[in-house]
Amino acid sequence: MDLQLKGKTALVLAASKGLGKACATMLATEGADVVIGARDKTTLTATASEIRALGKGRVLAVPVDVLQPDAAAAFVTAAASEFGKIDILVNNAGGPPFGKFESFEESAWQSAFELNLLSAVRFSRLVIPHMRPTRSGRIINIISLSVKTYLANSVLSTSMRMGVVGMAKILSTELAPDNITVNNVAPGLILTDRVKDTFPPVTPGGPSLEEMIALRAKDIPLGRIGSPEELAAMVTFLASPLAGYITGATIQVDGGAVKSPY
Hints:
- The chain has helices at 18-29, 41-52, 69-83, 106-131, 155-175, 193-196, 209-216, 228-239; strands spanning 9-13, 33-37, 59-61, 88-91, 137-142, 180-187, 250-253.
- The protein folds into two domains: 9-190 and 226-253, Rossmann fold (3-Layer(aba) Sandwich), CATH 3.40.50; 191-224, no CATH class.
- Helix 4 (106-131) packs parallel to helix 5.
- The chain has 262 residues and is α/β, with parallel strands linked by helices.
- It is built from eight helices and seven strands, in the order E-H-E-H-E-H-E-H-E-H-E-H-H-H-E.
- The model has no long low-confidence stretch (mean pLDDT 95).
- The protein has a seven-stranded parallel beta sheet with strand order 3-2-1-4-5-6-7, with helices on both faces.
């Protein structure tokens, strides 16, 4: 299926590895020009080289810290200057620490707010003026399955991601007259390096990594942990013209883990 992304310009944050890298790679594979951002310049540059090797869309790597307003503005300006337009924004950032409600000081709440809610607000505000003149655009927020179901010790992440969901719902209505859609993608258990790091070290006589992964996946109806590419496929579809009638939605990619019918 042709997703009609050739010549589109997509901005992907936290794109040097994990879910962001998978999204940028798949968007480029579909012919989009991608602007990838992350804090680590070395890793970001290596990722850009990998994507360029696909021989599809063009790639621009711009180091950026989503917590810094000036850096965010410079990132968007560089993208618009290089490719002349901005069609797609994929808001993405790492998650805050896990823990019980009473274990976090106010400073932890402020940090989570800036990382997971304010960064999405900031980049959305920056790209909307570039999308409105073309009367088209896609804003996609990668959030967490915790907005759909209970996830223990995720109070910081859940609170901020819920804020993103509310923002996206309001923004999708405000931007609808300009044909700009706003959606959220909520990943379930996806096998990224961050998830792998949550497993205990493999020891002689103990379970293998594969066995630990299988145990973690036992309550997922599909019986396995998802791949970053499966999450990226949903993001790429939502970024395409074919998804033009989907907006204000929060779509989980979770192997059936959420049992609620809503």
